[in-house]
Amino acid sequence: MSVPIAASDEVLSGEAVAIDVQPVGFLLRALGAIIDMLLGYGVFILWIFLRIWLVDAGVLDDATDRIATVAALVVSFVVLPITIEVALKGRSLGKLAIGGRIVRVDGGAAGFRHAFIRGLLGVLEIYMTFGGLAVLVGAFNARSQRLGDLVAGTYSQRVRTPGLASHAPLLPPSLAGWAQIADVARLPDRLARRISQFLQTAPLMVPSARERVAYDLLTEATPFVSPVPPAPPEQVLIGITVLRRERERRALENIDRRAERLTGRRLGV
Q1: Whose C-alpha in 111, 121, 170, 254 is 20 to 30 A from the C-alpha of 192?
Q2: Dihedral of the alpha carbons of 19, 17, 247, 95, in degrees to the nearest 10
Q3: Same domain, 43 and 147
Q4: pLDDT recorded at residue 165
Q5: Each residue of 250-261: pLDDT tens digit?
């Protein structure tokens, strides 16, 4: 009997449990980039109108006009994107619109160094090529990373994610007391993946086969669980999965908080 694997846009924890940490898709990321591009071009166009007024008023001569124009280019296409991304902790107007945030490839918070690298390379791949180079690079990697992301070690993470209810079982009420004292060690990856796949497909299985598979899986998982509650095998497997999922979630949150504190210290915040 074949079982479906997790969706390709899901991120699985070490216990093969789907968690709400997903990269932004290629089309959504392109839309966000277009919004950010329009902001940069819009700021520079405002400078052009201001420049005309300043030249007519005699405030700018030829030398100061050239200097001011170069400064406006740098501010519009380098300083502004970097400043917004750092101030909003990995977000920009485009990313706010599509529900994304720039993070490191390990899931930690991105800092000034990452934004600076992305901003510099963004001049080449976004503004100088009108996004052509970014599209070309992003279309050929799984996380839709542009060149700046690949160099900086970042990607765009989806913040507003759809619920993964079908892959996130709830703890059975009868196991609430057991969950308070249970010690569930890390399961072997292959066993964890088989349990996750079984819980996804269990409703479609014949009852006798469902009970047999649940019993066999629990037998394999028993050495990693203490104590084993006196409950139906499938319910125990759900309890094991929920506890491991919560532990993985807390670990990711702790890593993210530590990374943000370290970033804040480096920036002197």
Answers
A1: 254
A2: -10
A3: yes
A4: 46
A5: 777 777 777 767
